[in-house]
Amino acid sequence: MNGMEWERVHHVSLAVRDLERAREFYSGVLRLTEIQRPPFGSRGIWFQAGGQQLHLIEHPGGQALREGGIDTSDGHFAVWVKSYREAIDFLEQAGIAHKASPDSIAGFSQIYIQDPDGNIIELDAAYGS
After folding, report:
1. What is the domain-level CATH number for residue 78?
2. Do the domain assignments include residue 2?
3. pLDDT tens track for 12-52
4. Residue 60: CB partners within 8 Å, gap ≥ 6?
5. Which range, 3-17, 48-62, 71-85, 110-124, is most confident?
């Protein structure tokens, strides 16, 4: 029996408590482009993120989805950025707390941030970029 042939990651979905607050962070602060979302029974927003998509789904009830600060061993999604230095400068100007590892043992520079709901986002770049 042959296995399934993988092509690429299409999207990542994250649960959020407040859709408008999430829209402001991802669109207003991180500057992702909002795209059309089908009229599902749930509330959500879709964004284009390079060749992939980011789907935000408002979690009913508004209860805490995650507590605590940046934990690099927790579930997260990662985005490759063109420049580590430009990403750090952008985050600092925007007042976004981050955990930076410019010389990470991963083989590339890593920066971790959180959205307003505590979802963790990893920003990766080539060493010295």
Report:
1. 3.10.180.10
2. no
3. 999 898 899 999 999 999 999 999 999 988 899 999 988 89
4. 42
5. 110-124
